[in-house]
Amino acid sequence: MAIKSLLLASAAGLVAATSARAADAIVIPEPEPVEYVRVCDAYGAGYFYIPGTETCLKISGYVWYQIGAESYDGGDSPDFLTYGGYPDDEGWIKSTRARVEFDARSDTEWGTLRAFIRLQATWGEPSDGSVVADQAFIQLGGLRMGYTESVWNDSIGAGVASYGSHSWGSMSYGDQQRHQISYSFGSDQGFAATLSLEDDALDGDGYMPDVVGAASYNQSWGAVWAKAGFDEDRSAVDDLGDSGFGVTAGVQFNIPGFEGSSVRVIGYYSDSDNAYSVISPVSVVGGFGASEFSVIASYYHQFTDTFGASVGYQYFSDYYLPLTEIKSGVEGHAAEVAFVWTPIENFEVRSEIYYDNVGELSSLGIPYDPDGTVSGFLRFTRFF
């Protein structure tokens, strides 16, 4: 019994001593948990949550290296590749471009809040490597504000109802970027429409903006679309105060049984040489390079999962004299062929060849008929 009492007393002493030491122990706090980057799948592949926020961010872009050549010698029709910028140059025309895009999105009670920034630098052009902010805009639901593609080119929900032919160059379709406020509704799975107020000068002169409207209907078989643009002062450079307008309509049919293959036809009309026209870079007349009528027809065929090719043709009915409603009587023709090979994911090899021919210029008092020109490039692009 005495031994049992002694053991119990010893155990009690040990417990008391242990409790005393525990009370005096230094507790080291655990480190704060690290918030790792989380994938955001609400807006498609490539987005992740910015740590500590509910904003999703996607960083993407590309780097390309391009080798080009053209036959323009100063007396021919300007070529599509350089717009006749390299007369008598028989060497290779090289270009390298780096582009990075930041796309931030988050859900709000007013719709998706978005900010988009595009930075790029191109070597082989006048910028020669200087980084520029090529585009930047804010978007809330269908409301977009900033500097980006004109709605004459592209708009929210337009789907395939954008740009010109199937090639990267897309032929002459009025390519331009604008300072704008636009509102869109609908989607690229059905009907969509956009109204845009656009500024062509960015210098604050005048209070009346240009106005552009677009409507499109996309389905599994293809799409149809129509656009109209009002240029409130087509001759702002010369301060003549004349307005002008242009309209365009197009259709694309996807070829049954050949996934990825399609044919598209687009028609253009402008009442004068104004910003809402084809803006042909191969016009020898000058100004915006507008023609009264123009038609683009192109076909793209996806031969395999990694190789596709397209052909295109464009007719220009009658170029206007610069910044006027006066027709020059000069017409033009253009043709192209493009090849695209993607041997591995995110790596593209592309080649495009253009032929351009402006008609006889005797009606302008120029005593010669320019020869046609050929231009083209081979490009290697790594996307990310």
From TrEMBL:
Q: How does it sit in the membrane?
A: Multi-pass membrane protein
Q: Which UniProt keywords apply?
A: Cell outer membrane, Ion transport, Membrane, Porin, Signal, Transmembrane, Transmembrane beta strand, Transport
* Presence of the UniProt keyword Nucleotidyltransferase in the record: no
According to the UniProt entry, the coiled-coil residues are none
User: Where found?
Assistant: Cell outer membrane
Q: Which Pfam families match?
A: Porin_2
The cross-references to InterPro entries, in alphabetical order and at most eight, read: Porin_alphabac
- According to the record, the signal peptide region is 1-22
Q: What does this protein do?
A: Forms passive diffusion pores that allow small molecular weight hydrophilic materials across the outer membrane.
**Which family is annotated?**
Belongs to the alphaproteobacteria porin family.
Domain text? Consists of 16-stranded beta-barrel sheets, with large surface-exposed loops, that form a transmembrane pore at the center of each barrel. The pore is partially ocluded by a peptide loop that folds into the pore lumen.
Recorded protein name is: Porin
Task: Please report the organism this UniProt entry assigns to the protein.
Answer: Aquibium pacificus
